[in-house]
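Hi all, long-time lurker, first post. I run a small reading group and we've been trying to get comfortable going from sequence to structure in the token notation. Rather than ask abstract questions, I figured I'd post a concrete chain and ask someone more experienced to write out its structure so we can walk through it together at our next meeting. Sequence below, copied exactly:
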Amino acid sequence: MKIALTGGGTLGHVIPCLSVMDTLKEIDPNINFFYIGSEKENEKALVTNRGIKYYSVKTGKLRRYFSLKNFVDCFLIIIGFFQSYRILRKERPDVLFSKGGFVSVPPVIAAHLLKIRCITHESDRSMGLANKINSRFCECVCLGFKNENLKPPKYVYTGNPIRRDIKNLKRVKGERKLILVLGGSQGAVEINELIYKNLDKLLEYADVYHQAGRFLDKTIKREGYYQTEFIGSEFKDVLARATLVISRSGANALSELISVHIPMYLIPLSLNASRGDQIENSKWAESNACAIVMKDKEAFLKDICSIITNDELLAKLEEAAKRLDDRDGSMEICKVILRKE
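-- Answer (accepted) --
Happy to help. Here is the structure in token form:
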């Protein structure tokens, strides 16, 4: 069996694809894979380092507003479609699995025209524009969150794919509490500024491990503070030690943190910087009592100090996450991919 994977724009689309691939390999080591992705080097490297053939295609960003860039991007999407068509006609996979993102649209449409089974996955509470388009050409849309308005068999609630080494992670306690700060695959200036501004006070209560992205400030050094641009293979070890995670509220991060039952303090992207998906995700997490959501930057330090020093609250957040950890998203998606018509 041969399976094509696609998705990109950020690593948040690529990593879940690889999580699904790992689970498929556990089920059947003889499955062959190849990836159709963007021309971004970090995305390509993540896939090729796993020994997977990678095809780069042109693509354009899908915007919901008028911009002159839309005309150029439409042209790039058309080029990407013909590139994808040639790749898929050559490789002839049995299934194409899409994780969304603007790079996935040309391969999905091309696969549909070639009569290749297409399955896409939506991580967020609300569907992104790419997946709204993809859903028209896919046999099935896997959902990361329950949605009573989207019915089977077209829509299936699978949960979100979790990296296998994260799913099986056992938490450990260190000598000091640890605050893990995650800025997403590209980092987050807003979160970095909050950490830098309040670092000395935070270090009174816990060590701080800070994934700052490309915006990190190398001049800031303190005992008990470690910052890095990107957390690699050591991520699972740091996560196992974390007492509290400060994070954006992207669906993938949210799902992985829930699977490890770690208390969360969420700082969602605003409507000015996103389509509002992170705001919806954070509201869902807060309504299910597994996270505290930042309402005001001025309250950040008070919020964190009140959480990290309150063992009873930390325990309640952890228990709420355990209740939500109700399925293996990667395995459920694999069942859909391998399902015979």
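A couple of things your group might point at:
The CA atoms of residues 250 and 278 lie 6 Å apart.
Residues 166-324 form a domain with the Rossmann fold fold (CATH 3.40.50.2000).
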